[in-house]
Specification:
The protein contains 7 helices and no strands. It folds into 2 domains: 90 residues, Uncharacterised protein YqeY/AIM41, N-terminal domain (Hypothetical Protein Yqey, Chain: A, domain1), CATH 1.10.1510; 51 residues, Arc Repressor Mutant, subunit A. Helix content is 77%, strand content 0%.
Amino acid sequence: MEMRDRITAALKEAMKAKDQDRLSTLRLINAAIKDRDIAIRSDGRGDGVGDDEILAILGRMVKQRQESVRAYEEGGRLDLAEREQREVEVIEEFLPRQLSEAEVDKAVEAAVREVGAESIRDMGRVMGVLKSRYTGQMDFGVVGPKVKARLG
């Protein structure tokens, strides 16, 4: 099932169950996807976003909310932090399982070997391979320094 279909089905379920928290998060997801669709159509680059782009959107949404959780906790607003955390949990339902530290290391090694990377100048090619295969499964903010250390 396509990501859009999964999200739409979850939205309908939340409406039927009258689960307002889940429903509002799913509506935010839909809005983010539609915003991206509009941007792509207006640029004349196609009909809309595919599953890979949806995964990237969801990944960004999770990252934003995790940063908000930290900020709210530091500010003593635990009620808002809990709300953001619940949104993260709903969004993560649509993301693939995150790779473990060992799996990430293995993927980095395989990508380095595949592109024949020998120096830091090859970092972009290595990251490109990783992003094409593991979008939504690893945090590229953490992976970048690992690739840099491996090539450096």
